[in-house]
Amino acid sequence: MVGIHATTASDSKSALNIDQIAITPNDLGKVPQLVNKVEMLGNALASGQANARLQLLDVTESLLASLETPRETILRYCWRNSTAFAMIETAIDLGVFRLLVESNEPRSVADLAAATGAELVLLQRMMRQLAAVGAVVETGCDEYTSNGFSTTLSESRYADAFPTITGTTNRSILSIPEFLKKTNYRNPSDGFNCPFQMGFDTKASFFGHLQENPVLGAQFNNLMSVYHQGRASWMDPSCYPVERLLTGARRGVDEVFLVDVGGGKGHDLNEFLTKWPTTPGRLVLQDQRAVLAEATGLNKAVEPMVHDFFTEQPIKGARSYFLHSVLHDWPDDVCQTILSQLKAAMTPGYSRLLINENIVSDSGAHWQATSLDLIMMGDFAGAERTESQWRELLETAGFKIIQIWTADKWSESLIECELP
Ligand SMILES: C[S@@+](CC[C@H](N)C(=O)[O-])C[C@H]1O[C@@H](n2cnc3c(N)ncnc32)[C@H](O)[C@@H]1O
After folding, report:
1. Given this structure, which CATH class describes domain 72-154?
2. What does R_g of the chain's alpha carbons equal in angstroms?
3. How many whole angstroms from 255 Cα to the centroid of ligand 1?
4. Where is the O-methyltransferase C-terminal domain (predicted)?
5. 11-50 tens-digit pLDDT
6. Where are the domains of the chain?
7. Most exposed residue of 2, 112, 145, 304, measured as fewest CB within 10 angstroms of its CB?
8. Is the CB of residue 386 less than 8 Å from the CB of residue 339?
9. DSSP string across 365-394
10. Ligand 1 atom closest to residue 210's alpha carbon, by position in its atom list
11. Handedness of CA 21, 23, 24, 26 (dihedral sign)
């Protein structure tokens, strides 16, 4: 029987053993081997080897998990992560990170309290936790300065991740256990009836909720505009050879080279123009009206176009239609509707569909992909998909996958499709 736990007298012997296990490191036997790997990768990092830093991060995470006792692991999940999140969001709201960055010298808590209006004793408690989790640097008793993390959080494009996740996601995630219990552990499949509605006590979908809360919508768009940074981009030579699209692209003034469907504030097209400035044909950014109104930093060569991707695609016969982190927001049946509108607009033998998303490994998947998968489940009844799930989705929609391009296991892939 799923999800039912009853304690009986016969459990008491194993409970004694569990008490011992709870204070024993999770996997001490692995530690020497992991320490060796850390040393080896540290040397690789120092000699500039590509991806050594990312590999080192993964290994140090395994090292931490092996060294910790189960009791410590429980505290990390139940105490550290939630309180650190809350203190970071509060510090952002008070402007603490900006104050630290603006100052050339470390600042005392009394000074920060005077500048923010927060009560001294409250700020002391906050700053101690922020220092304990590495969000700021403690330079003396009740005195702090910024590091790279807090400096980044002084800028709203990055800091907005925290209020966005509070306003759209944390309550969805915390509702997942109750939602799944209520639905008898079925995979959520309706974006209007998923943990999001339970957590936020609303009938709205995720994007409807953003429309009802424009400040939150603007914060979400900021989050989307920066969250892919620091990874290989689909248009980099290490991922997708863009020359494949350039070769054979029609060069008339009306020809459209690339349509970014659900492209947010246009960061992908801006990046594209920086990396590929001599692109033939027009570049079109499509999204909802409120989102395009936020696209103030759009390159002048990009044409914004309000478009609902559930309706007929107005740009016919473009060289390419690009969907970045769009299909993961929707369950399969809704993706079929979005894909059908693109299929109807594409020219066989010429147009390409480019899907830029995670491909979740069937085994040994990275926590970033699995976590995002569950965020998609909680907020949208959507999903990060495995390769076989992508193939099934796209083949059912009537597309032929030409090739799947992946720079490395930490980056999103580019699924290149055409009409059969
Ligand atoms: C997860 S964001 C991805 C944004 C961008 N492609 C990126 O990768 O950063 C999904 C986008 O889909 C847009 N969207 C949602 N519903 C839409 C609709 N019906 N028509 C057009 N765009 C929509 C949202 O406004 C949002 O910008």
Report:
1. mainly alpha
2. 24
3. 24
4. 258-400
5. 555 557 999 999 999 999 999 999 999 999 999 999 999 8
6. 22-68, 72-154, 243-418
7. 2
8. no
9. --HHHHHHHHHHHHHHS---EEHHHHHHHH
10. 25
11. positive
- The answer to whether residues 26 and 70 touch, using CB atoms and an 8 Å cutoff, is yes
Pocket of ligand 1 (CB under 6 A): 207, 224, 262-264, 287-288, 291, 307-310, 324-326, 329
The CATH fold assigned to 243-418 is Rossmann fold (3.40.50)
Relative to the CA of 225, which ligand 1 atom is closest?
9
How far apart, in Å, do the first and last CA atoms of the chain sit? 46
The catalytic residues are 328
Centroid of ligand 1 to alpha carbon of 210 (angstroms): 11
Q: How far is the CA of 265 from the centre of ligand 1 (A)?
A: 9
Which residues of the chain are modeled with pLDDT < 70? 1-15
pLDDT of residue 409: 86
Candidate of 224, 311, 322 to mutate for ligand 1, largest count of ligand atoms within 8 Å of Cβ: 224
pLDDT for 59 equals 97
- From ligand 1's centre to the CA of 335, what distance in Å? 13
